């Protein structure tokens, strides 16, 4: 769901439930060797240059698209509640136009033996940016992450 807060402030919220324990899903987001195996839309391959999962720790991911392009995502972790919540800022480093730092909050909700992941991406600068992130994050949650969690 995309919500327009103002002409230059959009929020994207997505949720998906996985039939695995919350700790396993949280680790897929916070352990570099796991995140590298699934991060990004289907067809992308991600290499991690930096991933310091602690408050004010930096990260830098290189997302390699099937067409040969590379998208660099970088910024900082802001809040970490083990197995419950992850908050980080999100900035595209290699865009032609300046892309502002946005905020992503991920809630990991225990649902018996399953985990519901709620991703809230705020401060998106346009409807187009919200739609692009909707596509990428939906592909990641419903495709890449789901496939990764089913393999283990």
Describe it for me?
The longest helix is centred in the last third of the chain and has 25 residues, at 127-151. The relative contact order is 0.24. The chain has an eight-stranded antiparallel beta sheet, with helices on one face. The protein is of the alpha+beta class. The protein is built from three helices and eight strands, in the order ββααββββββα.
SSE topology:
Elements: E1 2-6, E2 9-18, H1 22-30, H2 32-38, E3 45-51, E4 58-64, E5 70-81, E6 85-92, E7 102-111, E8 114-124, H3 127-151
Antiparallel strand pairs: 1-2, 2-8, 3-4, 4-5, 5-6, 6-7, 7-8
In short:
The protein is α+β, with helices and mostly antiparallel strands.
Features of the shown structure:
152 residues, alpha+beta, 8 strands, globular
Tell me what portion of residues adopts beta-strand conformation: over 45%
How many helices? Answer: 3
Order of helices and strands: EEHHEEEEEEH
The number of domains is 1
The CATH architecture can be given as: 2-Layer Sandwich
**CATH fold-type name:** Alpha-D-Glucose-1,6-Bisphosphate, Chain A, domain 4
Radius of gyration: 15 Å
Strand order of the largest sheet: 1-2-8-7-6-5-4-3
């Amino acid at each position: 769901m995309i919500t327009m807060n103002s002409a230059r402030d959009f929020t994207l919220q997505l949720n998906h439930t996985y039939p695995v324990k919350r700790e396993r899903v949280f680790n897929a987001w916070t352990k570099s060797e796991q995140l590298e195996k699934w991060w990004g839309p289907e067809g992308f391959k991600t290499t991690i240059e930096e991933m310091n999962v602690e408050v004010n720790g930096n990260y830098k991911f290189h997302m390699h698209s099937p067409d040969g392009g590379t998208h660099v995502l970088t910024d900082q972790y802001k809040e970490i509640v083990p197995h419950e919540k992850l908050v980080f800022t999100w900035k595209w480093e290699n865009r032609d136009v300046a892309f502002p730092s946005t905020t992503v909050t991920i809630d990991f909700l225990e649902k018996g033996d399953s985990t519901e992941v709620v991703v809230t991406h705020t401060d998106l600068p346009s409807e187009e940016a919200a739609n692009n992130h909707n596509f990428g994050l939906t592909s990641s949650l419903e495709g890449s992450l789901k496939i990764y969690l089913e393999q283990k």
